[in-house]
Amino acid sequence: MLGRSWLIFRRSGWRGLKTSVGILVRGEGPPRMADADTLDRKHYSEWVKRYDTPTDSLRAAMRERIASMGNTPLISVVMPVYDVDPSWLREAIESVRRQIYPHWELCIADDASPSEATRALLKEYAALDARIKVVFRPRNGHISAASNSALELAAGPWIALMDHDDLLAEHALFWLADAIDRHPNARLIYSDEDKIDGRGVRSAPNFKPDWNLDLFRSQNIFSHLGALRTDLVREVGGFRVGLEGAQDYDLVLRCIEHVAPAQVHHIPRVLYHWRVHAASTATSIEAKPYAQEAGARALNEHFARTGVRAKAECTRDGYRVHYELPDPPPLVSLIIPTRNAVELVRQCIESIQRKTTYPRYEIILVDNGSDDPAALDYFRQLGQQPGVRVIRDDRPFNYSALNNAAVESASGELVGLVNNDIEVISPDWLSEMVSIALQPGVGAVGARLWYPDMRLQHGGIILGIGGIAGHSHKRLQSGDAGHFQRAVVVQSLAAVTAACMVVRKDIYRSVGGLDEEHLQVAYNDVDFCLRVREAGYRNVWTPHAELIHHESATRGDDAAADKQARFVAEGQYMQRRWGEALAADPAYSPNLTLIFEDFSYAWPPRVPPLAPPTSLR
User: What is the pLDDT of residue 1?
Assistant: First the structure.
């Protein structure tokens, strides 16, 4: 039970129709920043100081945990080296030697560095520490060949990938070993990462989601810190020569073809620090364009191997995948419920008919008791157009029931739920959504919706924000990519808004459609998507289907007592039905806030702490 709550209404009744989610926040008043009130929500240095700086007590707890592990694997850190600044290389090696977890080896392959200083430093460390193995290649073969040479030295069951100028957090290999021990079926493991400058100042943390296939096809979320089973890496042939710059991305693409998604594990902790300098890919995607081109090639070859009819291209934000439509493409039934609102409906339907390039769709307008003569006259005209049907449904307003009834009469293989206040921007919006919805394993597909002033209204739904759910990157300015491009790339999400949603009709019906008993107005799309996910599908959001959402253009009185009561009741139902799942969104990091919709930091993070050492309990 939520008890007393602060309500922020997002939708209510026919005059506002639907904006997907509301925020229901626990507490005695409006949302506050808690202990972050006086802080910049994106003040990372302070966040690191509070939550990511190991103490002596934590180090003791880690050593105690190591002693209790049933499995303490040797972790082989693979490091190709070529002509690096000796001071950076020394710092990189020392970051490995400072690891709290002691069962490691550092496997270094020097790729015929011309610098005598580099070779001398490597010889120094090989003599100093028996855990450091070094091979000197007689000729330069570039990073893939050098990585394979380092891989040949690896004796451990796991390898971890490290660049010659970056740093491991001192607890990096501890958390990796902890994950290996707790998740014995895992075959690939990755962590969060950030950047570090020459003064040791950390910045730009990439707080990643759990394994997310569609996001991985948009950007390499695996590196860094990435670790893989050594036998798996050798089974797929190691690093491929010819894909330099994207050799680790290509390796992971080949590895995931041999494992189940549940065998890819994410550690939501910053374990790796990319060094920021002019030649580093830590600065931007554009730093090494050949690397991005190699990544697109790796992705396209992955599609060819797995039988996916798709083509990836490079963009300024990563990769965009174009999935092929079948020939002929399937019929899509676009369902638009409304009551009156003639001008909104006219704008919506005319924008669909005028701009949409997808060739096979029907429009089903659900008239929920309209009584405006102008609206009734327009609806009669619509009903005479080919490809348009008008269904009269005079039941009391129940958004879920109206859509469910319309789906039963739909002729399409897919259905599209569309608000009456939607206006098309991108002509290929429906082609994009359908092409994704037809992919094996995909459930609901959502679009990028803009407010009329071109601030972001819907970038997907994040569970837990405000207690139930909120919009990703809400009110983000057009042109802003969001947290590590999360506002501009295709990705799997827990849920997407039914203000514009496409899904196969057989999936819609198999999960029971929208819940017309408990969720007549609010949260029905969130609940629907969670049931789709529960049935084994993944929900996908694409930024390449763009529409304007004229939210609140005809909003009714949100403060009416009956609407408040219904809203609270529907929120309470969501809490009972989904419980802790609402606070554990796999597409969102526990290091990010559940108060705001802007991907700012959580104060404190929700990452489970390590138990203190026995002596302090």
Answer: 29
Spatial separation of the C-alpha atoms in residues 563 and 12, rounded to whole Å: 7
The tokens of 322 are what?
């174009």
The token pair that represents 455 in the structure block: 């601030």
Q: Which of 248, 414, 259 is CA-nearest to residue 326?
A: 414
Nearest to 467 by CA among 593, 558, 288: 593
The pLDDT of residue 37: 44
399-404 average pLDDT score = 98
> What gap in Å lies between CA 110 and CA 348, rounded to an integer?
62
Q: How many helices (H) and strands (E) does the chain have?
A: 17, 25
User: What one-character-per-residue DSSP string does 52-119 give?
Assistant: S---HHHHHHHHHHHHH-S----EEEEEEE-S--HHHHHHHHHHHHT-SS--EEEEEEE---S-HHHH
Task: Determine the Cα–Cα distance for residues 580 and 439; give it in Å rounded to an integer.
Answer: 29
Q: Strand ranges (DSSP E) for 472-518?
A: 491-493, 500-504
Give me the residue label for tokens 């969501």. 574
Structure tokens at 225: 């810190």
Residues 467 and 24: beta-carbon distance below 8 Å: yes
Give backbone dihedrals phi and psi of 501, rounded to 5 degrees, phi first. -135, 135
Cβ within 8 Å of residue 85, ≥6 positions away: 165
CA atoms within a 13 Å half-sphere pointing along the CA-CB vector of 392: 9
**Continuous H helices in 229-366:** 230-235, 247-256, 289-306, 342-355
Which residue in this structure is represented by tokens 């029907």? 362
Stated pTM of the model: 0.91
Number of C-beta neighbours around residue 569 at 10 A: 14
